[in-house]
Amino acid sequence: MAKQKINIFHCAIVPLLLMINFSCDAPRKNPLDTHNPDGVWAELSGTAKTFGSPSNAIANVAVVWNNEKIAITDEQGQFLFSQIRAIDGWLRFSSKNYKSDSVYISWAGMSTIIQNIQLHPMPSLQGHVKTTRVPPLAISDVKVTWSAAQQFTFTDAQGFYKFEDVSPDAGQLLFEKEGCRSFTENIVWSENPVVTTDVFLNANPRLDSLTLYSIVEHNYGPRIVEQLNVFAYLDDEEDDIMSVFLQCSPLDINAELSYNVQHKRFERSFSVIDLNINSMREVVGHDFSLMVFDDYDDLYDLGAERIERVIIDEVVVDSPKNSDEVGNPVVLQWQYFNPGFPFSYNIEVYTDDDFTQELVWHKEGVPSDSLSIVVDEMLEPKEYVWMIWCVDEFSNRSRSKPGSFSVAE
Asked: Which of 34, 47, 85, 263 is 20 to 30 Å apart from 71, CA to CA?
């Protein structure tokens, strides 16, 4: 009985072994079979890094396998394709700031391949724009133009600018911002496709105010003194103004102003001799420009003003005069005056000293229809002189001959 069971076992196992043996050359259809060409066990991975040394990881690189699957590199520059078919093909890399590249992958019977690549950066221009003042400060909204391609961009809040994916052709970067001196930089390309150019812009001097007015002083003799007064207030962030000139081309006037440290302004009083003219009336109607040179020898035309009139007519003092003796309060009187334009009076009282006359009382903006005014201060017993000015709406002015008086004890 036992012998019969063994024969039955042999009869069952032999056909099974024969089936297994003959099945070795059968087509591989099992998707989990690693020898199945249609299997999904192949794995392709690697990293994308910058070209050169040091080589840094590049994130957000698009990696395409065989035009079928896509992966994006992570912060470490790594990518991974899993469960792919081990069929030879192209692995392509592309990124906004780098040149595209590709690698042909040949599996050669392998099921795992690690493919690393270094990408060359696209040619680019970048840098910062700052002030020349110390410490330098970032300048935003600077227009930066790349001449080779007529591209332009603007600096951000940190003064940074960048041109991406540019052609490495010879050209210039032009930096422009209202209120600053423009600057041009020639670009020379080298082996490094990334050119960094930092620029420091100099702020233009600015004119806050420019005042020109004529002065005519009547004296006994008869003698008339004529002047042109100029006051200019400037703003310059870098404090690099070298010289300031008043210029009038038709009159061939180019005269330098002086800086008044106390009043923080440029100023000067010009006589007719200084201006090389015969009468101050010659300047009426001409534009006078304020020209500024800075330490870089750049010339700026900051604006212009003109003299609208020169007041030749004289206000005549009535009393006191000719050393009249008067008491307090002192009353100053003058004759009716009508020059034919809007004006007001300024009145001044000085001590009568041939060397150092001292201003002891003054009044500005006295109405033009006035004929007298009371000195609202007690004057000490001594000798005085007083004078009255006609001042128009442009600050041009004409001064009377002085009247002298003394105050009784």
From this structure: 34
Q: What is the pLDDT of residue 134?
A: 82
The answer to whether the CB of 34 falls within 8 A of the CB of 40 is: no
DSSP code, position 143? E
Separation between Cα atoms, residue 98 and residue 96, nearest integer Å: 6
Q: pLDDT for 64-123, tens place per residue?
A: 999 999 999 999 999 999 999 999 999 999 998 888 999 999 999 999 999 999 998 888
DSSP designation for 57: B
Q: Which of 212, 147, 148 is nearest to 176 (CA)?
A: 147
Pair of tokens at residue 124: 């680019």
Q: Are 172 and 147 in contact (CB under 8 A)?
A: yes
Q: How many alpha carbons lie under 13 Å from residue 98 in its C-beta half-sphere?
A: 23
What is the model's pLDDT at position 360?
96
* Residue 37 Ramachandran class (φ > 0 left, ψ -120 to 50 alpha, else beta): alpha
What's the CA gap between 245 and 237, in Å, rounded? 19
Q: Which residue has the tokens 């110390």?
A: 134
Closest by Cα among 101, 105, 98 to 45: 105
- What are the pLDDT digits (tens) for 238-267? 888 999 999 999 999 999 999 999 999 999
b/e 336-365 (16+ beta carbons within 10 angstroms → b): ebebeeebebbbbbbebeeeeeeebbebee
H helix or E strand, kind and range, residue 232:
strand 223-235
Side chain identity at residue 288, one-letter code: F
Q: Which has more pLDDT, 31 or 302?
A: 302
SS3 category, 115:
coil
Cα–Cα distance, 86 to 111 (Å, whole number): 7
How far is it, in rounded angstroms, from Cα 167 to Cα 64?
26
User: CB neighbours (10 Å) of residue 333?
Assistant: 15
- Hey, what are 30's tokens? 């099992």
Q: Give the C-alpha separation, 132 to 329, whole Å.
A: 60
Helix (H, G, I), strand (E, B) or coil at 183: strand
- In sequence order, which residues have a C-beta less than 8 Å from that of residue 79 and are 6 or more positions away? 45, 46, 47, 48, 61, 63, 71, 72, 73
β partners of residue 163: 125
